[in-house]
Specification:
The strands form two sheets. Strands 1, 2, 3, 4, 5, 6, 7 and 8 form an eight-stranded mixed β-sheet that branches. A two-stranded antiparallel ribbon has the order 9-10. It has about 230 residues and is of the alpha+beta class. About 15% of the residues lie in helices and about 30% in strands.
Length: about 230
């Protein structure tokens, strides 16, 4: 799967070999972790992108809603369960701090972003570089800093030269939504609705930007890969 690839929820679960029911999935695979994000107006967590799309600041997740905890947004995000085991917040926090101290390798994390109901985008593989807690709305929440890489896992065997190096920059969610509506969910070159990717018209390395819809378009896999093979 390529960064920028548009997929359904079912395709995402098939790619990971599991039904992804939660946003944070530590070591979903033996080689990497998985997080799901959303930056839509009604998203439950205020994830943000910094450094012209290189860095993701991801907020930890709340305790599960229950009869005892009917409003999780009023409670601190916890590192451990009542039984004492690490929560997903705790697992990611521990991994980040161990890597920061040099006691273990940096944790790779595959990031998927929901842009609208039924439509997801694979944002690529990130390195988990730091973690901390901070006050937010009268409670303590976890924050995680991840930086996008050109690392791949699985079936993608193409060389770095063949891959779209612009995908070391995240496209803002608002831009993705604008492009999706403008291009009507179709490849701009052949009108295909299958295997779509968000593509930079002018590459970042040549002065193009990820921040405006004017430089982003939808391409099918065939045209996206053909373009990548011809980048000079």
């Amino acid at each position: 799967m390529e960064p920028g690839e548009v997929i359904s929820y079912i395709e995402m679960c098939q790619a990971e070999g599991a039904s992804l029911q939660r946003g944070m999935n530590y070591r979903q695979n033996r080689d990497y972790s998985v997080i799901l994000m959303s930056r839509r107006p009604n998203a439950p967590y205020p994830d943000r992108v910094e450094d012209e799309g290189r860095t993701l600041i991801y907020e930890g997740h709340d305790v599960p809603k229950s009869a005892e905890n009917p409003v999780p947004k009023l409670l601190d995000q916890e590192p451990r369960t009542p039984g004492g085991s690490l929560t997903q917040n705790g697992l990611f926090h521990e991994a980040a701090l161990l890597a920061k101290r040099g006691d273990r390798a940096t944790e790779p994390v595959k990031v998927y972003e929901k842009i609208k109901d039924g439509i997801w985008v694979f944002n690529g593989v990130f390195d988990l570089l730091d973690a901390w807690t901070q006050e937010s709305g009268g409670r303590q929440v976890f924050k995680f800093r991840l930086e996008v890489t050109d690392r791949t896992f699985g079936a993608d065997q193409r060389s770095v030269e063949q891959r779209d190096l612009d995908h070391t920059r995240l496209i803002p969610s608002s831009v993705k939504l604008e492009v999706w509506k403008r291009d009507r969910g179709r490849c701009v070159l052949c009108q295909s609705q299958d295997n779509l990717h968000f593509d930079h018209d002018l590459p970042f390395s040549k002065g193009g930007t990820s921040l405006t819809a004017q430089n982003i378009r939808l391409l099918c896999a065939r045209h996206n890969f053909a373009k990548g093979a011809n980048i000079q």
